[in-house]
Amino acid sequence: MYKVTYLCFLFLMLFSCEKNTTYNVNGRIIEIHEKDYKLLIDHEKIENFMEPMVMFFNIHKSINMQTFNINDYVNFDLVITKNSHYALNFKTINKKEEIIEDEFDFLNDSNDEYKELSVGDTLNTVSFSKINNKSYTISSPNKNLTIISYIFSRCPMPDMCPAIVSHNQFLAKSFKEQKNIEFILISFDYIHDTPKVLNKYYGNIEKEYNNIIFLSSTNHLNDLMQITKQSGLRFWGIEENNIGHTMRTIIIDENNIILKIYDGNDVLPGTIKEDIEKLTKLF
Hints:
The protein is an alpha+beta fold. The protein is built from five helices and 14 strands. α2 (161-174) links the parallel β8 and β9 (181-187). The radius of gyration is 21 Å and the shape is globular. It starts with a helix and ends with a helix.
């Protein structure tokens, strides 16, 4: 009896406890968000995990954020948990005295005619490709509410693009009986994320939820420029295969008027769900 109990306990210990994975990372600091404990870092390839990319890292609360400077080249440990990540054990390898100007991509052009919009403004009508290669226009007079988020399929961080997909699944399930609400996820990786690629990654999700749509921006570059600029999403490094991006979700009505804007990946899906419930009462 005791032997069986011990074996069961050992089994549970071995298989119920998940071990965090740690990677060593080198990269250059681009932005410092001291209050949020976040750094935007242009990092080198992380062996066995991630290609070079520019992205926000959650910094462990034990770290003094005032020790960092823009353009510092740092080495640190990246800890991947089940649902998130954090960085710690920072070492400054090289302090750069000059600010290096990076032209991440065309979206940073100050002469861009498409400016970031606010709540109450009207989003341009744009078109993309669905996973079945059919064209889809984001202008839905038959939908009272459209929730738009941005992702790319190769994003490996559990609390970034994968979390956005998961949040949309939760919301789609919550509102599956309401045919006038749809959830759109647009990939801004206009080179890699073709309709075929998106179908491979997300086709089963579309089959399970008839109110979720994944859209490819391949061959729709001008439309992508418009909607990301107007939504306030920043991304860069697509052509250099050194992708970085911010997080942004918006809600529009049937006239493409922006009703809600959510910045960052710290917004809980429950908060968005409550906002959608409030908005549906207006229609």
